[in-house]
Every structure is written in structure tokens, then in C-alpha cells.
């Protein structure tokens, strides 16, 4: 009886030991990881994050400044035009962000273990998803343009003043990274961003409100354009090593990390000096409204010196938003 009881206990212990046998860790090779990424269903958040929402303040402030300048020059403001130009500008930037993610991935500038841009790796988005999103934003941009056309109802203004700006802006946005020009990889990225989200987008928003272009708008756009370019500059400084490995040339990779730090400082110095010069020419100190956030520049410069690039990209974009918003307010308070 005792022997039978002992045997039953031993048998029970053996069964329990099987239940708690540790499972060896599984390893995934590159192909398994790629398969997992492609088969994961993207969510609404995935699509949103792929557009880099934190960066969309760039196009918003450019459009805001263009509308503010239109109000300054004409004391006229069309809310419908403002809404259409905002959504058009946001769509334009989303196209640029998605095309950039797509081509950085294709040429190997972004790789899974190192890329700061996680669009092609963490969100369950395939190349097909990205191309469909680009197409969607292209359609949305076109619809915004159609809305502006219907609102203005003046073919000469549309095809002489507005469409050329829209077309050039769209082409620069796409070919910033897309083949065959790939401007970013040839050291022309900073110039492309300066032109697209500075003079072109600001002038485009201005022309939609006023039905004409004004050369002075290009001048007014320069301080904001510089703060916008500072966002790209931080991004490219962070990616110097990855870009070199992929054979891509940026201004940051050309001048090196140390000189990029001094260029970052110079961008803000020039932006504020240019703004101050504009206010002196007009005799209207209210244009210097962005001086309110000037102390923040010192914190940004310190972050750059400490090489906290990942956090600094978003912080620089946020600074550009406040700079642009305050600048726009200052513009509206200095009517002609």
C-alpha cells in the first residue's frame, strides 16, 4: 500500500515537471522579421504616425504666415481659402514625408536596427500601403486646388499666379528624395526645403487669398524658412553615419558634426537678425514678436551640443511652430 502511494506521488511529480519545462527562446532572422512586419495589419495610428504628425506644424505655419501677409496687405481674409490652403499644405508635406520614408528605406539609408524613422519597420506598413497613402494625399491636394479654383473663379489668376507655384512645390516635394533627381542625396536637401516650405508655400497661400503674387512675400518668408530648415539640419546631423553608409550626401555630412553644430547656431542668428532688419525697415517693432521664444534657442543649442538629436528634431519643429505663429501674429498687427 505504501509502495503504491509512493509510486503515485513520483508519477505526479514527473507530470508536473513536464508542465513547467522552460521553452527555449526563439530567434528571428531578417526574413522572419520582414515577414512579421509585412503581415501585421496596420492601424489608424500606424497611418497617422507614418505622416510624422509632429512635423506638420511646418506646413501649417507657412500657410498661416502667407494668410497673415495677405491680411496685412489687403485687410481681407477668406476663411474657406484659409482652410483649403491649410489642408493643401498639410497634404503636400505628408506626401514629402512618405516619399522620404519610402526612398530612405529603398536605398538603405534607413535600416531596421538604426533608423530613427520607423515608418517602414514598426507600423505594419508595406511599400504598397505607403504608395497608396501617397496617392491619397495627391488626390487630396488636387481636391484642395479644385476648391480654391471654384472659390476664386478667375482662370487667369489660377493658371498664372497659383498653379505654377503649386506645381513647382509638388515637384520639389516629391523629388526631394524620389528618383531620378533625389535632391536630398546630392546635398540639395536644405535648399529644397528652404524654397518649398518657405517662399513657395507662403507665396502660394498669399496668392490664394489676394489673387496676385508679391515679391516682398518671398522676403518676409525667409526668417520662418530658416527655422524650418533647422529641423531638417538636426535630422541630417543625426543621420550623418547612416547617410554616408548609404552613399547619400547631405550638407551635414559634408561639413561634419562639429561644423553642423555651429551652422545650427548660425541659422537662428540669421533668422532673428533678418527679422529685426525687417522691423527696422518698416518701423514696426511688433514684427519682432518671435523674440518671446528666443530664450528657448539656448536650450535647443545645448541639446545639439549634447547630441540629443532624436529629441531635438521634435523640439526644433515645435520651436519653429511657435516662431511662425508669433511671427504671423506680429504681421497681422502691423497692417499697411
Q: What does this protein look like?
A:
By secondary structure, the chain is mainly α. It contains 13 helices and no strands. The protein has helices spanning 2-19, 30-39, 44-50, 57-74, 79-107, 127-152, 155-175, 189-210, 215-238, 240-245, 251-282, 294-305, 309-332. It is globular, with a radius of gyration of 26 Å. Residues 1-7 and 9-39 have low confidence and may be disordered.
* Total number of strands: 0
Average pLDDT confidence is 87
Q: Which second-level CATH architecture applies?
A: Orthogonal Bundle
Largest sheet: none
The number of helical elements comes to: 13
Q: Which descriptor suits the 3D outline?
A: globular
CATH fold category name: Farnesyl Diphosphate Synthase
| Proportion of residues in extended strands | under 5%
- Give the C-level CATH assignment: Mainly Alpha
Supply the number of structural domains. 1
Please give the radius of gyration in angstroms. Answer: 26 Å
Order of helices and strands: HHHHHHHHHHHHH
Structural class: mainly alpha
Low-confidence stretches: 1-7, 9-39
Question: How far apart lie the N and C ends?
Answer: 108 Å
Amino acid at each position: 500500500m505504501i509502495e503504491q502511494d509512493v509510486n503515485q506521488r513520483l508519477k505526479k511529480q514527473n507530470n508536473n515537471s513536464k508542465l513547467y519545462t522552460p521553452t527555449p527562446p526563439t530567434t528571428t532572422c531578417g526574413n522572419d522579421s520582414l515577414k512579421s512586419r509585412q503581415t501585421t495589419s496596420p492601424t489608424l495610428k500606424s497611418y497617422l504616425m507614418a505622416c510624422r504628425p509632429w512635423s506638420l506644424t511646418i506646413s501649417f505655419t507657412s500657410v498661416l504666415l502667407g494668410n497673415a501677409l495677405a491680411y496685412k496687405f489687403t485687410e481681407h481674409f477668406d476663411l474657406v481659402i484659409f482652410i483649403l490652403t491649410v489642408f493643401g499644405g498639410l497634404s503636400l508635406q505628408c506626401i514629402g514625408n512618405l516619399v522620404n520614408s519610402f526612398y530612405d528605406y529603398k536605398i538603405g539609408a534607413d535600416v531596421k536596427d538604426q533608423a530613427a524613422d520607423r515608418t517602414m519597420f514598426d507600423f505594419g506598413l508595406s511599400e504598397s500601403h505607403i504608395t497608396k497613402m501617397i496617392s491619397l494625399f495627391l488626390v487630396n491636394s488636387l481636391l484642395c486646388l479644385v476648391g480654391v479654383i471654384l472659390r476664386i473663379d478667375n482662370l487667369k489668376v489660377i493658371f498664372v499666379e497659383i498653379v505654377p507655384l503649386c506645381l513647382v512645390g509638388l515637384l520639389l516635394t516629391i523629388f526631394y528624395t524620389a528618383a531620378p533627381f533625389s535632391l536630398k542625396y546630392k546635398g540639395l536637401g536644405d535648399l529644397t526645403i528652404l524654397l518649398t516650405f518657405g517662399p513657395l508655400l507662403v507665396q502660394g497661400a498669399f496668392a490664394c487669398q489676394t489673387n496676385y503674387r508679391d515679391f516682398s512675400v518671398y522676403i518676409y518668408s525667409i526668417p520662418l524658412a530658416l527655422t524650418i530648415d533647422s529641423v531638417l539640419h538636426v535630422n541630417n546631423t543625426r543621420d550623418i553615419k547612416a547617410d554616408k553608409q548609404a552613399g547619400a550626401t547631405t550638407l551635414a555630412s559634408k561639413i561634419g558634426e562639429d561644423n553642423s553644430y555651429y551652422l545650427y547656431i548660425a541659422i537662428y542668428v540669421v533668422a532673428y537678425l533678418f527679422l529685426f532688419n525687417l522691423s527696422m525697415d518698416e518701423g514696426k517693432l511688433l514684427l519682432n514678436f518671435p523674440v518671446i521664444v528666443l530664450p528657448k534657442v539656448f536650450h535647443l543649442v545645448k541639446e545639439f551640443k549634447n547630441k540629443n538629436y532624436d529629441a531635438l528634431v521634435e523640439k526644433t519643429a515645435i520651436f519653429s511652430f511657435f516662431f511662425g505663429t508669433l511671427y504671423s501674429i506680429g504681421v497681422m498687427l502691423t497692417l499697411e
